[in-house]
Design goal:
123 residues; mainly alpha; two-stranded antiparallel ribbon; 4 helices; 2 strands; 59% helix; flat
C-alpha cells in the first residue's frame, strides 16, 4: 500500500502515531477544560475563578523594560516624537504597576515609583 508523499513511513509507525493521537487528544481535553465544565448544568460551581495578579518582576519584564529599550532606540535615532510617545506609555505602565501592587514590603509602592520616576525638571 502506497501512502503518497508518506511512502517512507512504515505501517507500524503510522499505526503508533494514530494510536498516540487517539490517546492524547481525549486526555488533553480533560486536563485543559475550564473548572466546572464537567459538572454540567445542575452542578455548576459557584466559586469565582482565581484572578491572576502578575508579580512586580513579571510586569517589569513584560511592560516596563521593553519601553525603556524603545525609548533608548528612539534616542539613538533621534526620533523624539516616538520617544515622547513611549515615555507616555512608560508612565502608564508604571501607573498600572502601582495600582496592581499598592503596598510592597510595608511601603506604598505608587509613592516609591513616583519618587524614582520623577524627571530632573520635577514633572
Amino acid at each position: 500500500m502506497k501512502f503518497g508523499p508518506f511512502s517512507a513511513i512504515s505501517k507500524s509507525s503510522l499505526a503508533l502515531g494514530l494510536l498516540s493521537a487517539a490517546i492524547v487528544i481525549p486526555l488533553t481535553t480533560v486536563f485543559v477544560s475550564p473548572p466546572g465544565a464537567h459538572a454540567g448544568a445542575t452542578g455548576a460551581s459557584s466559586a469565582q475563578p482565581t484572578m491572576y495578579l502578575p508579580s512586580i518582576s513579571d510586569m517589569m519584564i513584560g511592560t516596563i523594560q521593553p519601553r525603556h529599550e524603545r525609548i533608548w532606540r528612539a534616542e539613538q535615532t533621534g526620533d523624539w516624537n516616538f520617544a515622547a510617545y513611549e515615555l507616555g506609555n512608560l508612565r502608564g505602565a508604571f501607573g498600572r504597576l502601582g495600582r496592581a501592587h499598592p503596598v510592597e514590603e510595608g511601603t506604598p509602592f505608587p509613592d516609591m515609583i513616583g519618587q524614582l520616576s520623577k524627571s530632573r525638571s520635577g514633572t
